[in-house]
User: Fold this.
Amino acid sequence: MKCISVSMLAVMSFLWAGPIGSAQQQNASDGMARLADLLAEAERNNPQIQSARQEWRSMQQVPTQVSTLPDPQVSLQQVNVGSPRPFAGFTNSDFAYLGLGISQDIPYPGKLRLRRELANKDAEVAEQKVEVVRRAILSGLKMTYFRIAFLAKQNAILESDRELLQQMEQAAEVKYRSGMGNQQEVLQAQLEQTKLLREVSANHLEEEKLQAGLKQLLGRAQTSPDLVTEEISESSLIHSYEELQSAAQSNNPQISAAQKSVDRQEVAIQIAKKDFYPDFNAQFMWQRTDPTQFRAYYQFTIGARIPIHRKQKQQPELAQAEIDKRRAQSELEAESQELSSALRKQYVAVERSAELLKIYREGLLPQAKAELQAGFPAYESNRQDFQALLASFRDLLKLDEEYWQTLSERETAIGQIEELTGLSLRQNTGGQK
Assistant:
């Protein structure tokens, strides 16, 4: 019985040291990767962000191209009489001449300005898409980071619990040898340890996959060392839903892109209306016959391209532009509603998770810990069987894991709100177990 008491005291001191798995990990100065540093690295190196930026820069080169007059055309004419040889017969006939001309296409006034404006709108949409890609990448990085941090914390919990199970196994074995217990209790303790090992192994497998995704987001080589995350800490959310909603509607790049698409289609309608008017062509020709007998001829011509097929071309073009504008307006409304819905879901998740974390910290975990602490002396004195003690251990393990899972999901939800609103919301409260 003395051996059992010593073992029980060791377990009790282990429990009194604090909640299972609540020991802090090493500081960031010990080689841990800070989330803020990884976000900055992703912005610099992620190839998807760089690709979107290059596309935007490419679109910025279009406005000057489409708003510039078409290149002029230069023509050379030479007419002979009596001989096919170039410049032969120039002095043999009064009808032979040499001509040099230039012509310029001139769109109807206002068309070039509208085309430039349309190209500028396309570039503005591309600029917003850069922000969409950037926020999506950073949000994905946060989700991966918090998941890796949760798995690391869960593994630490499981390793600590395995030590506790080993002490329970020793107590059951001593009790069995003294004739007060049975071998099944020892085997059950060993089985629980094996289950913990299985869970640790599964966590390592998932973490390796997440590490590969994290390196991809950072633009790092897959052969680079795995990253060690900081321990998750609870962040506060000081903004109301109304404030977040206002920020989202003002700052969300998808909303901005949808609005600029509506503006673009308005310009497209104006261009379609301009196409009902003719484009022009100006030509100038210099002609030279025998210089000894005739003076040079100068010819200036103005032409126009008349849009006579309005029912087949211009009217359908205008109708298409108007339909596209209505479609863009519908897409803007859909984006706005989807944004409000997504923001509401994440906001509710953050609010409710704060309540759950408080319940875990102040109610469930202390109660489960007290139950397990009370179960050890009861088991020692044969007032409680091993199954009840094991059930108390399982309850504490489950609640401990649920606490960190809820905390991870809360931080992920805050990251989603940051993506939707463009705000930086991560302020640590220190409200950690």
In short: The longest helix spans residues 111-177.
